[in-house]
## 1
Amino acid sequence: MAECHPVGFQWVMEARLRGAKVFHIDPRFSRTSAVADRYLPIRAGTDIVLLGALINHVLSNELYFREYVLAYTNAATLVSERFRDTEDLDGLFSGFDPETRRYDPSSWAYEGDEGATTDEMREGGVCHAEAAGSDSYGARGAGASATPPTDPTLRHPRCVLQVLKRHFARYTPEMVAELCGIPPEDFAELAEAITANSGRERTTAWVYSVGWTQHSVGAQYIRAAAILQLLLGNIGRPGGGIMALRGHASIQGSTDIPTLFNLLPGYLAMPHAQRHEGLAHYLETEGADTGYWGHRRSYLVSLLKAWWGDAATEDNDFCFGYLPRLTGDHGHYTTVMGQIDGTVKGYFVIGENPAVGSANGKAQRLGLANLDWLVVRDLTLVETATFWKNGPELETGELRTEDIATEVFFLPAASHVEKEGTFTNTQRLLQWREKALDPPGECRSDLWFYYHLGKRIRQRLGDDEIDRPAKELTWDYPEEGEHREPSAAAVLREINGTGPDGRALSSYRELAPDGSTRCGCWIYCGVYADEVNQAARREPGSRQSWVAPEWGWAWPANRRILYNRASADPDGRPWSARKAYVWWDADRGEWTGHDVPDFDLRKPPDYEPPEGARAEAALAGTDPFIMQSDGKGWLYVPSGLSDGPMPAHYEPHESPVLNTLYGRQANPARRIYDRPENPYNPSGAARFPYVFTTSRLTEHHTAGGMSRTLAYLAELQPELFCEVSPQLAGEVGLVNGGWATIVTSRTAIELRVLVTDRVRPLRVQRQIIHQVVVPYHWGHEGLVTGDVANDLLPVVLDPNVYIQESKAGTCAVLPGRRPRGQALLDLIEEYRHG
Amino acid sequence: MSRGGDSTATVPEADFRSYYGQPVLKPPVWHVPHMPLYLYLGGLSGASSVIAAAARLSGHDRLALAAGVTAFAGAGLGSGFLVAELGRPERFLNMLRVFKVTSPMSVGSWTLAVHGGLTAAGAASAVTGLLPLAGDAAVLAGALTGPVMATYTGVLLADTAVPAWHAARRELPFLFAGSALASAGAVGMLTTPRAEAGPARAAAALGAVMETAAAAVIERRLGLEGEPYQRGKAGLLMKASRALTLAGGLLATVAGRSRTLTAASGLAITAGVLCTRFGMLEAGKASALDPKYTVVPQRERAAGRRLAVVPDQENGSHTP
Amino acid sequence: MAERVGFFTDSSVCIGCKACEVACKEWNGVPDDGFVFRATSYDNTGQLGADTWRHVAFIEQDGRWLMSSDVCKHCTNAACLDVCPTGALFRTEFDTVVVQPDICNGCGYCVPACPFGVIERRERDGRAWKCTMCYDRLRGGLEPACAKACPTDSIQFGPLDELRERAAARLERLHADGVDEARLYGESPEDGVGGTGAFFLLLDEPEVYGLPPEPVVTTRDLPQMWRWAGGASIALVGAVAACFLGSRR
Ligand SMILES: Nc1nc2c(c(=O)[nH]1)N[C@H]1C(S)=C(S)[C@@H](COP(=O)(O)OP(=O)(O)OC[C@H]3O[C@@H](n4cnc5c(=O)[nH]c(N)nc54)[C@H](O)[C@@H]3O)O[C@H]1N2
Ligand SMILES: Nc1nc2c(c(=O)[nH]1)N[C@H]1C(S)=C(S)[C@@H](COP(=O)(O)OP(=O)(O)OC[C@H]3O[C@@H](n4cnc5c(=O)[nH]c(N)nc54)[C@H](O)[C@@H]3O)O[C@H]1N2
Ligand code: SF4
Ligand code: SF4
Ligand code: SF4
Ligand code: SF4
Ligand code: SF4
Ligand SMILES: [Mo]
């Protein structure tokens, strides 16, 4: 966190000054470890073992926050008889189809839900897994009964708590030592610290970023943390939570108003060509009727009205038919394979540098080289725009410039300081930025680009039916200045939404299902409340409460902590005076506190939903997790994940170690691309003995287009390097400051060597495992250049969200620089076949 | 500090810690040969003007003329090298913006300016025969600025953080005075009819002794900080200097009226004192570049003080 | 004169992000220092100099990784300022030490004079450069760029007296927490340079960070040096006199 989020890290330092104890769990000793109280080195790709063991410790020693768990989680809910655990099937959950390598999740359901499953659950499994729909399940609260059968004594063998207990029983401190390389004493210290700092009086927070996500079991890492935090009562309370440190500036914003292929704004699912007939059918299948997703018609209809305005009417399904449709996986890596196969002909690359930043750089560039046209919009000429004249495949002779037919358009972009708009940061906080200076030369903002591109396209449209969706779009933002820059404030206001009177709305509760309101993203509704740009607020912390509600604006409804009803006990009283946050004021008959309550303001704690109630009315006064169909925090996920209802440890796709927990080595549902461009290192192969992991440096940014081009940053880390322990250096013959060559089945790259005690060999399964740590910021353009670390990585993905496994793989290490040209290809050939 | 690598390879034997063996100090940035030549020429000019005054008073007119012209030439050429060191002529004028006693370079610059003027006037008068009274006055005044010219350079070097120089702050003025005297004597010997060159030969010999003695004291008294004078390039230069200067000095005493011996002596001494100047600069650079010479003496001083002043001071806490 | 201001750099909370180095260069338009992989932990700029006015050191030790941001000390008794022949170096109304680039003639004397090895002559333009404590920002009522950019408040800027109190409290706290190796560096007005305007909290001996353990302002000994020079001058005159007395015509 100190490395990649140094500004946010000031609060960790502040917490330390106030007595918080900070643990850092990471394969590399980074700047974060340097200032943590305890650093625990771990083998990359094994955190589920550690988290599972903590869960087991909490469950078997009855250390969980019983009242919280009982009232606010699904611990008491009974699971279907048909469910079979990894315990029963040696590493598989029930419902696995070895042919398609996918799960049918219907047996994971709550008791009583199996038969009466919603359409979503019936057909969900396969289709969802195919188009990364599983993540939208979770976001939209997958269908489950609002009132499933429970056992409040928590003794029923099929109640979630007992299921968890059995599932995690084999996750022991010994397993942690054997697989993660963390000794039992260190584990005990961690377990003691987090349990001692949880409960009524205290909370523990977990912070993660891509060290947990970029794995073929990535989503389940986060699930494991969620289970632990729910058990300890650390969700919805101040000082608790699981903090996902996000990446690029406003990457959170680009999931809310998504650049993802499978989502519409506000986490509404993108319609699927085969699964959704019309608006009604879509609404019926996409999500539960209970909880806040019960209002999804209002959200979607308001969105359609924002986009198509008066053209969107009740009679034409509010132009639902104009929305594009999914036909399967349109994710990044499948698209690249499509390029190589010749089925994808054109490519827009906007603010991304996949020739350096994406796994298997060679596949990326082969794809680029096989396009008809490529548009790159970036601040500088990044590697993705120059692959045809500077790419490493030219050196090896795999590509020749004269053979590449791709027509490349480079369009210079304005940077964030050269345009105004919002950033949505890690804690869902929207902050308005002013423009500091005009963009140079031909550089234009992306908003300008899309707006004027749209205008030109619309000018050329005819009367064909197929042109109507584009023709009828509302496309009329005020233009400002010499270059006719569309007003970003007007866009934000459109996202906020307007009521029948044309005034800005102030809350998503005002959204109507009948087309009388417009809203570009329901969770952002309120950011322009009272016609004021709330994101532009800059009230200093010293002049407001400690929750600081007047700094920027957080979605939804300016809430700073989600599900904060859980900060009070079932009766609505704070769990403790120290941790009071939001509570029930019986006299006034409403919820109050330091933050905006994340609950119906006037729903008393003793509210019981009437039979057949819908949406939030179906949730009781003690159900804080209002986006879930049952209002509970899910320790066990009956539907919504494509690789199991609970996390299980699987080894990375490429690992030097055997999975001793189950008979399954790697995640059975992981996505693999077994193709000539993407050969894999065999797991356990002696010729790839070392764990290979990639990471970031404070001094550079991602694929380097924004840092290797700047002298002040380039000088701070001028060359690609690898960090190795003195022991590994001795074993291989590496010298500090010298050169090393790292080899995988994809290619070999050369790096400078930093020999350091910070990288520690780990004792795993009675052998010593060496890890090699490589920052991935270098490429062939810029002031400082180097080989591309991602050229070493294979494409293998998490099945839920399609993220690549870039944190744990295997490699060989040789001293000295790599061979060039054909000799490089020969070396790789040799390593591929052993 | 560094791990498993090569970057501590240069760390010397002494028991001390450092940041990757990197220097604590910045070495003197003065260029070679500009700065050593300036030091040489300034000293030559300074001592020559003293000789010129003495010669004038004692009636050694040819010697007075030669020494006076040498003093002027030394100051003039020296200024040239100083300007070359600075890059542009107007930068020398900047030196005369202010006068600061705390800055030996300021004192030196003013001295050089005054001294240069005096020697120029003296030499001009002596050569042209014009304004003889003023000329004499200038020559005699040169006997006041000359010693400053010859010795301030010792302070110039000593008043830095460079360990080898600062530690030798007592001896450096004597070394530079001796060296200046030797060089002035040597040039005097070479430029004056041998019959009148007796005092120049004596000056050369005496200067050589003075320089050698001062250098010997430096090496002996300084301990660790004196090491840079004995090692590496500086060590070679200083050894050569000692041999050449002593040999030249000895020769001067026996040279008498022999043309060859005089020439040999004058050249040897000139070469020797030049070596001293180059050696001084090298030693200074070496001592600044090796953190040992900064850290170890400072540590010892601190330890000594701790024992002497606050014997119970806890190790590791701030030292007074 | 305004109140004396300075820096307290608390290395115990430094995260080595180098924001200070970059902010300094951005604000002051300092050129880059070259692109050299030094293989000295994460430090590739090496040391303070003409082109690096803030420098973050990285020290790898058994189980620890020390980081500390170094800067010109703005000494109470500043050797660089004392020896500068042109007056280019001067003491500002904030009691800081600043080079005026339009006056500096590049004589280079300040360079070896600094007991901390801070100031350096930039060979490209032949002038000496170092931290100005953002003189322009101070005059505009802003804090220096490096302090402003530091996310963890490792660099604290303010009136020196106040900083000394804060530092003492921090040291006490660290000692109470068992961090016995914590010490202050440069805060004492009794030290060899009369105390520094930029002082530090370190977690090991100063030399480990590339700092001199017991720096002394060289000009402290200057009167003595002038006396020795006087002696040498007299000796020179005496020697010349002797030469003439000894060899009468
Ligand atoms: N300076 C800087 N800041 C950045 C970025 C940048 O490039 N430079 N990038 C931004 C972006 S896009 C993102 S996504 C974030 C990413 O921020 P981070 O996630 O912090 O970045 P990484 O360094 O990639 O990975 C974090 C750590 O995960 C560790 N790790 C690897 N494998 C494992 C594992 O299996 N288990 C555990 N526990 N740890 C593991 C790595 O050693 C590394 O130290 O940073 C953002 N901020
Ligand atoms: N091996 C390995 N690979 C990884 C990771 C890893 O940890 N290890 N991390 C992954 C992660 S988390 C990420 S986010 C990716 C990042 O990978 P990419 O997104 O491919 O790389 P970036 O360099 O961030 O590319 C962003 C580009 O946007 C440009 N840009 C900046 N502002 C603007 C703008 O306003 N408009 C436009 N049009 N362009 C702009 C920048 O100049 C830059 O070139 O890398 C992934 N790849
Ligand atoms: S680069 Fe920007 S977003 Fe990242 S830590 Fe620094 S200030 Fe924050
Ligand atoms: S540290 Fe050096 S440059 Fe800075 S004020 Fe002190 S003597 Fe001058
Ligand atoms: S280099 Fe410039 S600042 Fe330094 S002493 Fe000379 S004139 Fe003064
Ligand atoms: S005070 Fe200003 S000039 Fe000095 S280091 Fe900080 S930013 Fe640079
Ligand atoms: S900005 Fe602060 S935390 Fe970052 S390196 Fe500099 S002193 Fe350390
Ligand atoms: Mo990212």
## 2
Amino acid sequence: MQEKYYSFLRHFSFWLFSLAFVILTPVIVYYSLGYKFDIKSKKFLKTGALSIKTFPRAVTVYLDGKKIDELTPGTIRELMPHKYNLVLEKEGFYPYNMEIEIKPSLVNNIDVFLIPKIKGVEKVKFDFNIYGFFLLRQIFTEKILIFTDKGIYFLDTDLEGIKKVSEQIFEEHLANSIEEVIANNNKLIFWNKKNIWVVDISNENFPSTDTANPVYTAGKSIKDAFLGLRERYLIVNDGLKVIALDMDNLGVSFEIYTLNNLNAKIFYDARSETLYIKDKIPRTENFSLFKIEIMPLIGGRISNERRKD
Amino acid sequence: MREEKIKRILEIIPGFLSWFIIFSLIILFILKPLSAIVVIIVYLLYWVARLLYSSILLLMAHYRMQSKKNNDWLSMCKDANSDLKFEDIIHVVLYTIYKEPENLIIDSLNFLKDTDYPADKIIVVLAGEERAQGAYDKLKAISDKFKQHFLDIIITIHPKNIPGEITAKGANATYAARQVKVYLGEKGYDFKNIIISCFDADTCPDENYFSCLTYNFLVNQKRYHTSFQPLPIYSNNIYTAPAFARVIETGSTFWQFIEGMRYEKFITFSSHSMSFKTLIEVDYWPVDLISDDSLIFWKCFLKFNGDYKTYPLDIPVYMDIAVGKNLLDTIKVQYKQKRRWAWGVENFIFLAQHFLKKNEIPFTVKFRKLYQILDGHVNWATWAIVISFITPLILFLGKIVLKNSLALFNLSYINSVVFHSLSFILLLCIIISWEFMPPRPKGVSRLVYVSFLFQWLLTPFISAVLGSFPSLDAQTRLMLGRYLSFTPTPKTR
């Protein structure tokens, strides 16, 4: 190709892009600001936009009953400012219906999580009478603990793999009253407002007892309980005092703090072995926060004893 | 005194404009965020148009180079319809040498020896520096090795501390060219028939370079008003250079490739060739400025009252990618090299000062040329900063200030269009760059091609950090009067 053709082509491209820039820039800027030219009224109208994100994607959008060509995620532009009825539909999910408002030069951002329609309900394969259940989360596993008329069982979360862990039977009203369950060192620790039970799940030959005896009965009402002191003790707020129950030697307990008020609350931080107590200040109406660091106490005593020796 | 003041004002202009663009966008966003968004949208659209136009030029340049690829330039020289005789044409190839290692210069001379052009028509000038210890002995040893291959080899040693000179390549080249003039005069050569090529020490010409150059010199009616520019391809050490350095230098090649399509804007860069007669007439390369390669063009432009052009030869010369001792050092070397190139903004001051005294050149031509230099340098210093830093910053802060603004929403969309345009031109570069690749040396794994492909992912980072910052640095130094000293790029293999 001769130089003059290159020159022609180059100049042509230059003027083409320059012209495109000069013509399109005002159009794009106006469009970006939300302006739309209405042929009927021969006026520039200010519009807004609707940006829709959904989970899952590819949802059909209806705006005031009119189907939009584009599936989600997407943006609908040039919408006249007023209220619209928005319907999001996808097969297998409940339709999502809402009212939205479009304002001039603004984008209404909609982010919707669609709920799938319930198709089938799974049931455990056995027909025990289940009184109560708890989901137990540990580092790597997740199990369902069920209290039944035939004893206590573990189940996998897919409702398979049933395993009996205790022969002990909790009556329905007791099983329903259980507030929390902790699995620790082959023991199940659980409590209701009044009692604390510990069930040994290490024994393959289940103990013959078929009645559940509590390891502790509260003076007033069990409010909070935490595993502490290297997970050896259960730290319990029983409404009147804070006691530590030895989980390895059942029946051994220590009162570590006397509470001043029934509305006192405790929190035990097992990481730092620190007990926090919200309790009433004696002879006042005010509550305050107290802290007892257990490990320095133990460490201090040991070093004192060594000094005495 | 008045001239000094004018010079200072001219030195301030490019840096001031670049900083003005950067700060005005930020200040405008603080005062009127919506207006700032509109300005950014216009700016981004301008770059989309510019990038797409550059893609067209790149494709055209590639097509033009391909169409010339199979020309038998030497036969064409012999049959050229010209008032000069091919047999009378003598080439002077001037290598400016500082501390480059001997093996690098030997490689360059081997390339020169192996070109298809008759070596007995080539005079080699090894222009060393007195500042480099043992320069003469080193060049003498090289000369002895190659003497029998060329018409002659001349060694010149540029004395240090000549009054009025700065330590720059131009001073060395000028000193050597003056020696060559004496030599050629003594030998009775007609300067009209001499073509001089000023090469860096690592410049390895393509085998067709001198025959192509000669043909274009012979047939060009305005050969004494024309410089001839090869396509600089940085590939001599491409298999050992770090990926980011490869991307930068390939980018430089493509920039020259695109610039070569814009004849009226095209100026000399790095290694170039021209008539020796013209070189003498314009009193050689500048000795007191850094950007000798481009300033020689402007000297000629002024000398011939605007009647001077640079002709793109579309034939490559192969050069080294600037590398350091390690990765960090390579970043430093690249940064300094790019800053030195960006110091080419001094062309604006040089030209504007001379234009004030030159009434023979029409005002519109003067204005166009000054605008061309300013536009190039100010855009170089700002575009990557605006696109890579200011636009994302405005998008981020805009979400806090303007929340659901439609303009902000559309800005993010247009911003993605810019990046798609960049990706398109990048894709073209990737495809075309494979053609410039030298053969893979023995011992280098084929896996290196994988890194050659993925190296382009570094482009956004490189364009931001090593694109605009060196240029802004150079302009700021000029603006503050903290002049740059010439830093030669280390050449090691």
